[in-house]
Amino acid sequence: MGKLARGVALIGAGMSKFGAFPDKTGRELFVEAYIDARNSVDNGIDNKDIEAMFLGNFSSDIFEGQGHNGPIMADWVGLIPKPVTRTEGACASSGVAIRAGITAVASGLHEIVCISGVEKMTDLPTAGVTDALAAASDVSYEFPVGATFPGLYATIATAHMKKYGTTIKQLRTIGVKNHKNGALNSKAQFSVTIKDLMEKRIKKLKDKEETVPDWKDEYDFLEDPSANPVIAWPLRLYDCSPITDGAAVAFLAAEEVAKKYTDTPLHIIGSGQGSVQPALHDRADFTSILAAREASNMAYKMAGVKPEDIQVAEVHDCFTIAEIIATEDLRFFKPGEGGKAAEEGITARDGQKPVNTSGGLKSKGHPVGASGAGQVVEIWKQLRGEAGPRQVPGVELGLTHNVGGTGGTCAVHIYRR
Amino acid sequence: MGKLARGVALIGAGMSKFGAFPDKTGRELFVEAYIDARNSVDNGIDNKDIEAMFLGNFSSDIFEGQGHNGPIMADWVGLIPKPVTRTEGACASSGVAIRAGITAVASGLHEIVCISGVEKMTDLPTAGVTDALAAASDVSYEFPVGATFPGLYATIATAHMKKYGTTIKQLRTIGVKNHKNGALNSKAQFSVTIKDLMEKRIKKLKDKEETVPDWKDEYDFLEDPSANPVIAWPLRLYDCSPITDGAAVAFLAAEEVAKKYTDTPLHIIGSGQGSVQPALHDRADFTSILAAREASNMAYKMAGVKPEDIQVAEVHDCFTIAEIIATEDLRFFKPGEGGKAAEEGITARDGQKPVNTSGGLKSKGHPVGASGAGQVVEIWKQLRGEAGPRQVPGVELGLTHNVGGTGGTCAVHIYRR
């Protein structure tokens, strides 16, 4: 495992609004993200400068009946006839696109490439989306016995609770925290705190002159099945990321040319990727993801930094338990201590190790193939001091962690201002 | 557009048998190909040496209900927890995997990577496969008006006939030639000549004491609808590549380490990739594919060779007209002269410019995501003098040309012994 032949920098990143957009196609959302990314490049960038594109997408095949959407997206943003390759690693599809883009630039073949992701999920009914996502599990074994992702992550959660004593309250803390961050992100699908949701519900019940439950606080609210039904115990609705339409785009440049586009590029100093058997039953332990440990070790080693050096991180919180495990696999905390750390506020925006300042997948939304590229947008803003009301002061070293399925694929990247 | 930071060599390549295998899964075919590829490495190769994998696959999502098959294939061949990325560009899915593998090695990140492709198509009924493949067209415009690939390529064929006077006989020549080559390839799905097919049919009719049509030769046979029905005029059954299950695998190494594995590596001296709008109606001309011209120009330039230097080529003959256009886009022949060149035997195995000595997609089979990697296997054998009865003597410079959809994606690679 070697060293990049030349350095690669991030020179711009942008995204569409994440949400449910029945009137928009994936193509339109992609154009929205592309324009936002182009606008983020300080000194501007022309399409003629962009030599190739990598598009993360999990399954427009199933979601929209459209395979081969690389050249379609390239066409809609004016990049024909340049090379475009779709990459897929389930919900890490655009995380692996970052790595493909880095190697394309470092190899010497290209000076500037576009890395991106898109997913249009809401055309299907909810049950159809659940089935489509289940295609990212091992369908020979897991899907036929009725296991879809909430069930698989619930299994992971109970294993973590049993082995380490992780509590329900700790799970809920992740959702509360991430909604608190997402409430400050206008691109988020659910730009609202859990507390606000509770108060809205109280107002609605009062308006209808119905009985208002005696909720002491948002945690109490989250244990009420009328407000937050169980999806797969111990996971309730607000432990699960939503079904989302969205796209995100970023531009990578060889270090030699990056300064032409911005005085403040971010240097991509670490890249790691790993795999594990998609089927849970093939693994010795459910409480940690081998692919994530592998990817993060690789990225830390390449970057020459330690977990404690990372100042801000976007991690893959498709379910609340996933964030707890992510912070352990990334070695921010010891195995079994991720839940406690969240509960103590360490991963809050004003804590020692802010995680998912964007709102994470939970609040910002999870258009699966675009989520990894969406994480890049937040790190771009945070490390450049452009994150507005959710800015963490003075951060210069950030990380993205993007997982596919229950961990079959994981990509980790480290960025330095 | 730059120059590779370091050279990349092909050190081994192998494939499963191509065909229809109702009793085998995509995973099993992949293992078969992987073992064949490992066995092709002269001095042997261990899994520990292989640092990452790129898997071309068009849509196991639709064909097998399995997305996220990168880590599944990696698991079945023992490459967990290494990075594995699925690449997709319709029927060029493994052609673009080659390029991804090249950049991964040239970037310095990896010394040796596996590039590969797999598709398991025959689990669906034929109409289902036709619909699945149509997902590689522009489904917002082309599929709703009933256009599937035979119809789209028939449109391309009639445009070529009208513009250049390309004849029906020239189309049929491609099929006759490729079956003649494929008859010498034991891995081919239809390892039989058209003449043999005709003679078998004559024997069968005689055995049943039915009337035997007065077929003068195989070309006459191919115009008889009872033997070769029209699929979409002017394309008949034997103008269309079959529906196929199969997998192919190759190993790429940094030039510095290649010699450890074989005294006769192939040097990958050219890589090109291009895109065009998937929808035919967006193009000014149907008789040439912009993506292929772009990809081949890029590859020739990088390799520092000219079209006339290429001694053996595997091109994307998903339909007979596609091979004619491929040989023009690659500038082997002037626009409009590809059909005539085939008719004159120039592209025959013993001609000046042998094309599809493996049998091509037409006879060898077209497991779409594996076809590009399958082409690599033939070039590996030809340039090393290991192609047995179909060996072209003394060839040292070869090319692969892999197209997705009606040309939305194209990847071209050039190899020197």
Could you explain the architecture of this structure?
2 copies of one chain form a homodimer. The first copy, chain A, contains 15 helices and 11 strands. The first copy, chain A, has one domain (8-125, 242-416): Peroxisomal Thiolase, Chain A, domain 1 (3-Layer(aba) Sandwich), CATH 3.40.47. The first copy, chain A, has 417 residues and is α/β, with parallel strands linked by helices. In chain A, 38% of the residues lie in helices and 17% in strands. The longest helix of chain A is centred in the middle third of the chain and has 16 residues, at 149-164. Chain A has helices at 26-40, 60-64, 70-76, 93-106, 126-134, 149-164, 168-182, 194-207, 218-222, 255-261, 290-303, 320-329, 338-343, 360-364, 368-383, and strands at residues 8-15, 52-56, 84-88, 112-120, 230-232, 235-236, 245-254, 266-275, 312-314, 397-404, 409-416. At the A-B interface, α2, α3, β3, α4 and β8 of A face α2, α3, β3, α4 and β8 of B. β3 of chain A pairs antiparallel with β3 (84-88) of chain B.
CATH-scheme architecture of chain A: 3-Layer(aba) Sandwich
Mean pLDDT of chain A: 97
Number of domains of chain A: 1
CATH first level of chain A = Alpha Beta
If strands are numbered along the chain, what order do they take across the biggest sheet of chain A? 3-2-4-7-1-8-11-10-9
